[in-house]
């Protein structure tokens, strides 16, 4: 829309561009939901597979408030995701740094990494359950497996691709291997490592669901399986939307963490940390 | 800030037998050569020279004539293939803290503020004191960046980044400064101003300086001696003495005497320049 038009519209309605955008979105959303509701009521959509929005809303009420039975499952899935993610990515980052720093190990490990990278990790899930048995440990192992590779690969490449001239600088300053690692290699690799962590976190939720689909004992995955088998599609949808929100929160959290850790990649981060360091050092220098 | 100058002729037996160079030379080389591993590239052949304390030496020559190789040998970053090389009378066999190096790119760490970058060399040696922080702030004042000491590298212009790198070089306390085309990536205006400042600063701290450049006029303007180098194999073809008084002003570069020296250097370099 030409700017002049937008201006005129603003003056007429007395609303900012932001608010008008929000209104537009709300209108589109309500239209879709309305059509869905109508379709279900008129029998255009099979109500068995496409439950009415009003029913889904009622399911939300039921599982969140009246029965409150979704809370332990959310807790179960979330804690599974978190522990698997932490374990897998810590392992990935440390092994990646170890392999990256040692040229010989790197040469030996490389072919295996390529083979494993080409294999969909989730395919190994049934084997892990067979090996570790049903229960928390095999679930965590599955999530660890999907969370391991992105940080591992990214840490490896981040550590290997250190700028030659900076390495030379550190050598000329007489830095030890540990100092080189702590003051140059790791900070330099941090943005790449964080990109790997974000990828890992996204797969962690999918990994948890697959584990729960297979084991069907607890968690949102198991709940979806139960509701679907009982043809309670409205509640299944309520669980799926719950996962949407969970996924969104995880995404935003990782974004926030990335901005905190690799602060120097954003103007906002530079301002924030710069102000803090100025405060800390002003009296000293 | 300077390191104490060590006496020459201590604790080295093999090199003592060979000619160790003039008694008071800070850097002394005899027949210094470097051939890279594949054995085909003679990056530097038979370089011999003495560099007096506090003097400013420029290295000029076309690309590939071994300028960076010579600097990296002196810094102890690479091993020589043959010949003798001493800094402060001691053979060079590893990176050492009395020699500091600065590169064409500022190589600042972008997660550190300017002052934290300047403090890096000290941090690597020992834990920081208040005195170190004051010293680093003072050095940033010397290069005209005191107001920017809490800025991050990405918030500074290219010229300002090189000033921070210069302050970091001075913070090492090294009294032999090796500068490999330090302002080569900057625009001419900024480069000229930084050159003048560099002359002032190294004179102030009394450091011995080796300065690599492709620019003949710049090399002469800054230096007491110009090492004119030629490629294939990399050699020091001639050492040209620069007779002009200090302090020098940029207008010197338009004088006929100055242009005579330029012509002399150009003559040694031959057709390619
Ligand atoms: N690590 C290396 N391995 C093999 N050959 C090298 C290495 N470093 C330099 N050389 C070769 O040695 C020669 C001299 O290189 P050097 O970098 O010293 O030149 P330079 O005078 O600094 O050139 P420039 O002005 O382009 O920086 C070149 O032929 C170069 O290809
Ligand atoms: Mg070079």
Account of the protein in words:
The complex is a heterodimer of chains A (about 280) and B (about 270). Chain A is mainly alpha-helical. Chain A has a single domain (about 70-285), classed as MetI-like (MetI-like fold, Orthogonal Bundle), CATH 1.10.3720.10. Helices cover about 80% and strands about 0% of the residues of chain A. Chain A has 12 helices and no strands. Chain A has helices spanning about 5-15, 15-40, 55-65, 70-100, 105-120, 125-130, 135-160, 165-170, 175-215, 220-230, 235-260, 265-280. Chain A is globular, with a radius of gyration of 25 Å. With about 270 residues, chain B is of the alpha/beta class. Chain B has a single domain (about 50-75, about 100-270), classed as P-loop containing nucleotide triphosphate hydrolases (Rossmann fold, 3-Layer(aba) Sandwich), CATH 3.40.50. In chain B, the strands form 2 sheets. Chain B has a 6-stranded mixed beta sheet, sandwiched between helices. The longest helix of chain B has 18 residues, at about 190-205. Chain B is globular and about 50 Å long. Chain B starts with 13 loop residues before the first helix and ends with a helix. The model of chain B is unreliable at about 1-20 (pLDDT under 50). At the A-B interface, helix 8, helix 9 and helix 12 of A face strand 6, helix 3 and helix 4 of B. The structure holds adenosine-5'-triphosphate (ATP) and magnesium ion. Magnesium ion binds near residues 67, 68 and 180 of chain B. The site of adenosine-5'-triphosphate (ATP) has 11 residues of chain B, from helix 2.
